[in-house]
Amino acid sequence: MENSALLTELERSFTEKNYQTWLGVRLVRHKPGFVHLELPVRPEFLNTLGTVHGGFLANLADSALCSAILSELPPGITCSSIEIKVNYLLPVRGNILRADASVIRRGKNIGVSRAELFAPDGALAAVATGTFMIQSLSSFSCLPRVD
């Protein structure tokens, strides 16, 4: 069953000023346990060969993997990456990257998700898995703030 407060929190995370919005990552579709993200490719994302640098694919994968977990968590609970693994399948050229991610398993403290990243022509460009620590947002209050 969909939790509208939960999804509103997820949607808000893609509209606040942060790293993801600076990059241009967009939350296109979501439901509990699933997200579809898009990342418009900018010239700065290209490597010397003219293809999208793998780091941007890894970033999109990490965002999608974590967001899939977040889509199942109640308000006030978040997740952070423990490990991600990305298998790059082909070099990507073009103007937009797409990612679909879904939850494989979520427990009380750990969640695991899987993502597929697609080139503009729909070709499967990478697959990724991620493991995430699930914790209260209040556990981050002890961290120093960077302004």
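Above is the first protein from milestone M3; the second protein from the same milestone is given next.
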Amino acid sequence: KSGSGGEKVNTVNAQKSTSTLSIRTESNTVDVRGCSVEEAKTKIKSKISTSVQSGRSVIYVLHGYGERATLRTKVRDWLKTERQLVRRWNPADPSDGGDSFTKIELS
């Protein structure tokens, strides 16, 4: 019986070690609302560069959301191609602004 309890703990620890925990703050967030796609890319690349130099592994992009959500879609499509800079991305957790933000885990 105690063996199954140990396995459960190991599974939980393994799950924690594979996810990157972070909290969205002003210093790890870049606001690209109102930018063109090219301006947004430039701002995001700059934030990635300064974040890597500061030892951060996660940044957030505030692009807003709306019916058409063009900037959000274009930024996320671009992130799919940036494998040297970006390990993975996903919409931020609801507590961090949800779909108005994209959470980026840096390579």
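Note on the second protein: The CA atoms of residues 94 and 100 lie 9 Å apart.
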